[in-house]
Amino acid sequence: MYNCAIILAAGEGKRMKSSTPKILHKVCGREMVNIVIDVIKKAEINDINVIIGRGADAVKEATKEREVTYSLQDKQLGTGHAVMCAREFLDGKKGTVAIFTGDAPLITEETVKKLLSFHEEGNYKATILTSIVDSPSGYGRVIREKGEEVLKIVEHKDCTEDELKVNEINAGMYCFDIENLLKSLDKLDNNNAQREYYLTDVIGILKSNGEKVGALPIPFEETMGVNSRVQLAEAEKVMRKRINLNHMENGVTLIDSENTYIEIDVEINNDTVIYPSNVIQGKTIIGEGCIIYPNSRIKDSIIGKNVSIQSSTILESTVGENTTVGPFAYIRPESVIGKSARIGDFVEIKKSTIGDNTKVSHLTYIGDAEIGTGCNFGCGTVVVNYDGKDKHKTIIGNNAFIGCNTNLVAPVEVKEDAYIAAGSTITEEVPKGALAIGRAKQVNKVGWVEKKGLNK
Ligand code: UD1
Ligand code: CA
Fold first, then answer.
1. Which atom of ligand 1 sits closest to the CA of residue 11?
2. Beta strand extents in 181-222 (DSSP E only)
3. Nearest to 105 by CA among 192, 35, 22
4. CA dist., res. 420 & res. 435, Å (int)
5. Which overall architecture, per CATH, does domain 3-223 show?
6. pLDDT per position as a tens digit, 220-251
7. Euclidean distance between CA atoms 148 and 134, whole angstroms
8. Which of 105, 272, 410, 450 has the greatest number of C-beta atoms within 10 Å?
9. Are 325 and 309 in contact (CB under 8 A)?
10. Residue 201 CA: which ligand 1 atom is closest?
């Protein structure tokens, strides 16, 4: 059986009060519309058409890696009108079209598959997903005949008092027989409270033509739509719970899973322990056996195994195995930290490579530098990488010892095994194995205090 899908994503999203189109708001780090596309693809529907309108270019840009096609809905005249705009996409196709909304990101692959097989096995011309809820306010109500059969869907604003009491809602996700859908769309009108062409009216039209309509109730947790920031936070919470559950099932310990924020794309290996208040984002991969103490943010980074991280920020960087980071370290993009290294408190690393076993333990800034293996940085070292106009490079050889409070004025090179005396300002190359002292010599003026009459 041929299957394709349409995602409605042209709407205004007024209730979000945002300059960003609603369906580009993110849930656990991924745009809602992309979450929906990914779920549909996982359910093996690959011919996907996205209806765009509001913020069309932004939506195209955000979805461009996902190989979908687009139909433009110039004016948002309702969900039925939106599907009419996909006529070109549907014309000549025979089979089933599944329709989803870009603002309901909690649907799962299993449910999409279930919907398809339910629709096919029941020989329905249309099948709707529904949910039974305590407070149906705002949703379209599913009106059934005395027996079982679905008769029609009535939008909240068009409901009679009796219909408002119905607590089975339309999830806004459907399967249609393509030819029957196209014929029914021609019959839609906008004689309703919102003066819109409702896709939901197609159900009543099919029914009055004597066609078979199916309904599949599923938990509200999967059908919840996002129309406001409050609902966005609710969706985020459900998604977060699913993500965290999945990590725990894979052998990751989350000390307090309700307060651990891991985005959709993150991968974490087993026996890693994550304390609360951590934010792990983007395409981050964390190796096995790591410990991440509270209050870290890690984004688009690769963390090796057995790494310990405490109250630190790591962005677009790599950290080698057995290294410790923090507390209060800041590793900025394009940095590569080696194995068994130490990046200690109040250390900032920017666009630099730090070799294996190198220790940068406290109060240090390293920018645009290549640091060898086995080096030791004393407290308060500053790589002076910026001359007010350009950034310059600093190169430190293996096993160099940088004394406390050193300035390394780039461009500069310190060769391997060299020592730098504390308090030095290094402006010239330090040869291999040399000791560099770049500071004024100490002078003691004996008896000076007494001579000045300053004794206490
Ligand atoms: C819709 C359903 C309602 C259902 C609810 C489930 C209709 C008439 N109503 O209501 O029965 O309970 O979803 O969440 O279908 N859109 C367009 N073009 C438009 C209008 C909307 O592309 O002209 C898109 C929106 O971007 C959104 C989706 O369609 O992704 C749903 O639109 P929305 O206005 O949120 O519909 P609801 O009022 O929630
Ligand atoms: Ca909606």
1. 26
2. 213-217
3. 35
4. 6
5. Alpha-Beta Complex (3.90)
6. 999 999 999 999 999 999 999 999 999 999 99
7. 20
8. 105
9. yes
10. 8
